[in-house]
Amino acid sequence: MKNYLLLLFIINSCFCFSQRSATVILHPENANTQISKHIYGHFSEHLGSCIYGGLWVGPNSEIPNINGYRKDVFEALKALNIPNLRWPGGCFADEYHWMDGIGPQNKRPKMVNNNWGGTIEDNSFGTHEFLNLCEMLGCEPYISGNVGSGSVEEMAKWVEYMTSDGDSPMANLRRKNGRDKAWKVKFLGVGNESWGCGGNMRPEYYSDLYRRYSTYCRNYDDNRLFKIASGASDYDFKWTEVLMQNIGNRMNGISLHYYTVKGWNGSKGSATNFDKNDYYWTMQKALGIEPVVKRHISIMDKYDPDKRVALLVDEWGTWWDTEPETNPGHLFQQNTMRDAMVAAVTLNIFNKYGERVKMTNIAQIVNVLQSMILTNKDKMVLTPTYHVFEMYKNHMDAMFVPSEVICDSIQIDNNEKVPMISVSASKKEDNKLFLTIANVNADNTEEVSFEIPNLNFRKFNSYILKGESINSYNSFDNPNSVNKEIFKDIKIKGEKVVVKMPSHSIVSLELY
Ligand code: AHR
User: Fold this and answer.
1) pLDDT value of residue 18
2) In DSSP terms, which residues pair with 369 in a beta bridge?
3) Which residues fall within 8 angstroms of residue 314, CB to CB, at 6 or more apart?
4) For a 10 Å CB count at each end of the chain, is N or C smaller?
5) 315 in ligand 1 pocket by Cβ < 6 Å?
6) What is the mean pLDDT of each run of 10 residues along the chain (512 residues)?
7) What gap in Å lies between CA 26 and CA 457, rounded to an integer?
8) Per-state percent for the chain, helix, strand, coil, to nearest 5
9) Coil, helix or strand for 378?
10) How far is CA 279 from CA 138, 262, 272, 449, 461, in A?
């Protein structure tokens, strides 16, 4: 057995099936930072069946649709209040030529999707289809521009096409293609993974390209672009350092990608068939995003103490082996309670760094990696991760409430500890407090006591997400195996709120 999975032992007591306890001290009086709603953002790439079969089936499909958008998927996403959607990639973005995706759909040229299984892309989902979807969802589009194989002119014209209301060549072309009024596009990514699939560049070279490309991406009329530089992967702190030095305030944001993945070569492990050692390894890898984010932030603080440049974790989530008998280039994976737990603890972490972390995008929205939704022909299931996003919605744009968590941990063989309880708290109005709590413990119930000074709440609304086991998932035959339920095991005693959480469960709790 791989040695990193080998050793698993409880630090504070034996690993037995019993109840354990944790204390959380909340400081609502220090709620000074807003949690940007964009932390709950999403990502859609031309990859596998994310777009085709996932978001889009075309108006002539037998699958119920609204002007070509899958009805069931659209309605499920609408219920999430998604704040932003990134498109068209990922790696795909740096081979995408937007002019191929406008005009009559049957006249659009085809291309080979070289990054993702060599699939033929017919460009039937292009700029209009994407931006109209964002309008229907009520979310901000986040366009990822092509630096790797594109040109400055191509990117500049795309911005003009989307956002200019004047009598300009690109605005007129858009009008000819059926859209009179410009769309609002705020978020613009200048390349993606420019150190890898986006051109294999060095940070010094990319910095200069960023400066050049972004110069010609104009603010038309009252549209104001928020320009995002292609940032580092994981532990590449040098990339962030060089970009901060060379680009600085010319960018509004810099991205970061962090996947919960075992490695890039060989098996990444099954999405559903895993044991408790795999589970705890995954949890420590997911929690490992916190020191990574902190270190990138500390580099940014050195060059930008006023925090004018945002950190955007615009790709994150789990990455497993693809499901058997699916195209390995399509990254279609199942999604269990383990994925839900990764989402829960990661979002709890992001909420903490709201001063600098202004947006994050889980990868990806439908049918790819840690998705919200899986589809198979006319069938659709909501994943456990979907339910986490649904349960966490109240944190969007709320004020972050700092907390201290005192709980047991387990240690795995590389000396990393996995705390059993992860918490996030926020408030929107003084008379309401919102908590999200994950009991990471695979075996034990945890009684979590919240100490809240001047507590005057007497009522609550609460939901729980739990499965039979950490391996539970929703399949097309059994779509409701993991679903949120109303939760009642909560007691309000004096200045304490006590939540009795079953093993491997996630709770949202609104106190009022
Ligand atoms: O999300 C899948 C891929 O992962 C993206 O296309 C790329 O940016 C990253 O490497």
Assistant:
1) 64
2) none
3) 41, 43, 86, 142, 189, 228, 255, 256, 257, 359, 360, 361
4) N
5) yes
6) 40 52 95 97 98 98 98 98 98 98 97 97 98 98 98 98 97 98 98 98 98 98 97 98 97 98 94 96 97 98 98 98 96 98 98 98 98 98 98 98 96 86 92 95 96 88 97 97 97 92 98 94
7) 14
8) 30, 30, 45
9) coil
10) 36, 12, 11, 25, 30
At which residue do the structure tokens 């990806």 appear? 364
Instruction: Give the pair of three-digit tokens for residue 142.
Output: 């986040």
The reported pLDDT for the residue numbered 8 is 43
Ligand 1 center to residue 126 CA distance, Å?
19
Residue 75, strand partner residues: none
In this structure, what token pair is assigned to residue 322?
């693809």
Substitution candidate for ligand 1 out of 47, 94, 197 with most atoms within 8 A of CB? 197
The helix or strand, by DSSP H or E, that contains position 142, with its residue range, turns out to be: strand 140-145
8 Å CB contact between 5 and 277? yes
Active-site residue among 95, 160, 315, 446?
A: 315
Q: Which two tokens stand for residue 225?
A: 């672009």
What is the Cα–Cα distance from 382 to 293, expressed in whole angstroms? 29
Terminal CA-to-CA distance of the chain, rounded, Å?
Answer: 49
- The rounded distance, in Å, linking the Cα atoms of 272 and 278 is 11
The rounded distance, in Å, linking the Cα atoms of 232 and 468 is 38
Structure tokens at 50: 């994310």
CB contact at 8 A, 77 and 372: yes
Gap between the Cα atoms of 54 and 133, Å rounded: 13
Instruction: State yes or no: is 193 an active-site residue.
Output: yes
Question: Which helix (H) or strand (E) element contains residue 317?
Answer: strand 310-318
Give the amino acid at 376. Answer: N
Q: How many Cβ atoms sit within 10 Å of the Cβ of residue 464?
A: 23
Consecutive H or E run containing 72 = helix 71-78
Burial bucket for residue 486 (CB in 10 Å: 0-12, 13-18, 19+): exposed
∠ CA(223), CA(190), CA(218), 5° rounding?
30
Q: Are 143 and 150 in contact (CB under 8 A)?
A: no
Sign of CA dihedral 485, 490, 496, 501: negative
Distance 90 CA to ligand 1 centre (A): 5
Helix and strand numbers (H, E) in the chain are 10, 29
* Whether residue 90 has its Cβ less than 6 Å from ligand 1: yes
* Beta-ladder partners of 285: none
